[in-house]
Design brief:
Number of domains: 2
Number of strands: 2
Strand order of the largest sheet: 1-2
Radius of gyration: 24 Å
Order of helices and strands: HEHEHHHHHH
Helix content: 55-70%
Oligomer: single chain
Shape: elongated
């Protein structure tokens, strides 16, 4: 800690001295769960009084996180179908036919992909010594998808107004995806090296790509791989 900054203990001592004269029997201490609980406990210890304590949880509940995941999956599927309507894929492409067959089916696949991504972020991160929780991994995926919904909208506008930029925007969105995912996972699990996180993401993507390739070949036949 830099020498010009006061220590946390000194700040808590000063805060306790300021609070003590104003305490009444109906007072209580409240700590925000994201970082204020330990301050609340330290204040209660210094005040040496039997003060009621409570924890304020301002994080979205699990139901809201799951609802956000479903909403993002539906919105992304609708935008994908709109894009395929504006730029139809070749009729002999079985992978594209699978995507455009039904918006409902596309939304289910998108939701499953987002859910699996959250599970992988949590499980692999914890296995590597990370500190992130599954609910926070789920929220991370939802926020990333919010950003990429905006990217999808920009790509659709470019497809209509400046088709020549569509390919460049697709490449830029891919770079943005890897950068955002690396930064989000690094922050979620409190990893020290974003570079190592990026390499782990690439390794995981290779394994998942291999599994998806095998699955597509099993479901649609080996000839479908030529259209991927």
């Amino acid at each position: 800690m830099p020498a010009n900054l006061p220590s946390p203990d000194a700040l808590i001592d000063a805060l306790a001295e300021q609070i003590a004269p104003h305490l009444r029997p109906d007072c209580a201490l409240v700590g925000i769960h994201t970082g204020g609980v330990w301050i609340m406990d330290a204040l209660a210890e210094r005040l040496k009084l039997d003060i009621p304590r409570a924890v304020l949880d301002i994080a979205p509940p699990m139901g809201a996180r799951l609802a956000g995941l479903v909403l993002m999956a539906v919105a992304s599927a609708l935008l994908l179908h709109l894009g395929l309507t504006l730029a139809p894929p070749p009729p002999d492409n079985p992978v594209a036919a699978l995507l455009v067959g039904s918006p409902f089916g596309t939304a289910l696949m998108q939701g499953a992909a987002l859910w699996v991504t959250a599970i992988l972020i949590h499980a692999l991160g914890r296995a590597a010594g990370g500190q992130g929780s599954y609910p926070d991994a789920l929220l991370t995926v939802v926020w990333m998808q919010v950003i990429f919904l905006a990217v999808q909208i920009i790509q659709l506008i470019a497809l209509l107004a400046l088709p020549v930029l569509a390919s460049a925007l697709s490449l830029a969105s891919l770079v943005l995806f890897f950068w955002l995912l690396t930064q989000f996972v690094t922050e979620l699990h409190r990893f020290a090296s974003a570079g190592k996180v990026f390499l782990a993401i690439l390794a995981t993507l290779l394994v998942v790509s291999f599994l998806l390739t095998y699955l597509l070949a099993s479901l649609l036949g080996p000839e479908a791989l030529g259209h991927v």
